[in-house]
Design brief:
Strand order of the largest sheet: 1-2
Helix content: over 70%
Structural class: mainly alpha
Radius of gyration: 17 Å
Number of strands: 2
Length: 142
Amino acid sequence: MTKSKQPFLIRILAWFAALASLGMYLSIVLAILDIGPHIMGGERVTREEWLHIAAPLVAVIGVLMACISYGFATAKPWSRQFVIAMFGLIVVYATILGALNLIHHAIMWRAIINGTLFGGASLWYFYSKPNVAEYFRGIAKR
């Protein structure tokens, strides 16, 4: 068995995910303190709306981002599945909130489209790009 080298973008994504996780929690703290605008899907919303609707998703994504960062940094095979789960969660959350009329449909569609596009790109990158797929197959065998 040959040890495949970690793709460069995975190293970059590990740092990005760590910083994004911190940013998620910083955004919740800022909303609690009522600092700055409160935006969902590119639209301004009230602080209460943001805390009630966006903050739970932001908190869960913050945890997933921290797990993804850890998984990439320590070469865990499950890390790519967490990336796909994160985008799937965004699509499911937006669909449910939109169906219940708890968010504007423009916000719902933006989240669904973005989650689907980024999730699809992630599926391709982590499962179809030859060197990346080989890297994850290699670490799964260890």
